[in-house]
Amino acid sequence: MFTRFLLLSLALGFLCPNLAAKSKWWKTEIEGMRVYSESSENRTRKLLAELSDARGTLDLLFPGLVQEGAMPLNVYIFKSRKSFSQVAPLYDGKPNNSIVGLYLKHNYEGPSLIIVGEGETEQIRSTAFHEYVHHLLHQPGLKLPPWLDEGFAELFSTVVRKKDNKVVVGSTIPSSIYALQRHEPIPLKRFFRIQHSSHEYGSGSQETSVFYAQSWALTHFLMYGENKLPENAFRKLFNRAKNGTPIYEEDLMELLGVNYAQLEQMLANYCKNGKFTQLVYGLPANPSVEDAALVPLSQGEIQLLYGSLLLVTRDAQEAYPYLARASEALEQSTLAASFLGYQSMAQGRWSDATADLKRAIDLGGESPYLYLNYATSLLREHIPNYAFYSESINEAETGELLHALNRSRELGGDFSQELFKRFGEVILSSASEPPPEQVSVLVQGHQIYPYDEWIALYIAQYLVARSRWEEARNFVEYTSRLPLDSSARELHRTLLKSLPPKSEG
């Protein structure tokens, strides 16, 4: 089977045009970003300076909110839509040429931000910069509700640098003003309860436009509006909501001294008045942007760039010719070996993936994603996704898996929910009793990612297997309040049936 796949892939490599062969790219690293640019040096530095200003302003106003990730954000700057069409996601079988900004979250060496085109700053700001702010906010232990998450992203994507080391925040967003003027706002009682799964959030309907516009307007009003709310009203509301806690009317009364109807009227007046306050803050330009050395990429590195993007934007088969050429040109590259392994993972060829990822580790790879994916691939040779089979991995295999997962955590901290899920699967599938410190890691994962249903379910299963009924019951009841997919619901039902009746008294 693999031989046939390899021959087909090699044939595709000869038949597929080498789109990357004539491209010229730069690379550099600054402030939590690993940057690859096909654009001019001036354009590249300008975009990086604007991204840096958004980050710096957010950090200035909310110290400590922005944290360094386990790995830098991968930023790709394409010089034109035509150039990006070579790797753009397909829509009806054709490259989607409407994209000017795209954020891709995945476990292949960290998330990616794609910026497309020259001279389209406003379009880019409304998409790429918006997504960049989301990236900064999506930190372990921080779960902003959708309205606040989108409000922040909209507001801080408008940061503009002025002279004399000043930046301006709070510029109006014409599309949001238009949506609020044309359509009725969403009642706050419903607005504050909208989740990512809600119709208003992701349906692309009229209500979606209103939700985004209202999120920006409410965040803008609470932060900058000339109103009669208590001092630091927004910070109080932010601290209440930042862990995903819904905002109820009694919270508004306690924190802001207003009810839903009063706040709705204040917001309506603010929008009708049309005078959106813009505040100026002192923020020196980030010297690392000007000082960063832009180094040309080799042809092997460009092949790797295109292959790694195609793996995420399209599919593993289309990525393979580029990754194969990159691996041949960059024999000692841990990244090239890693992405060959990730390509095999995407096709479910676990033994091939394990071999390539082990080679990347032997070459000296020190990425938390590499060790996490190595453990995942090794585990998938025994059990499928989000599953466990009691005593299906022996003591030696357990030791190797836990070593890889612990090494991933040493390198990247608590960077990924998937890391803690793998700990759970290993603990539940091991033929040997897991060390207490590894079980503690799983519990810590639940504390950091309390809304991840699988981490909570794995803890419940561990407790059920040891007849720790009351502790298990607490976790089972907790997960019943979380959104569950069909697999999670099945495990939840099984755990529920395994619990003894509640003791009376």
TrEMBL record:
Alphabetical list of InterPro entries matching this protein: TPR-like_helical_dom_sf (IPR011990)
Taxonomic superkingdom: Bacteria
Signal listed as a keyword: yes
Keywords: Signal
Signal peptide: 1-20
Protein name: DUF1570 domain-containing protein
Organism encoding this protein: Pelagicoccus enzymogenes
Organismal lineage: Bacteria, Pseudomonadati, Verrucomicrobiota, Opitutia, Puniceicoccales
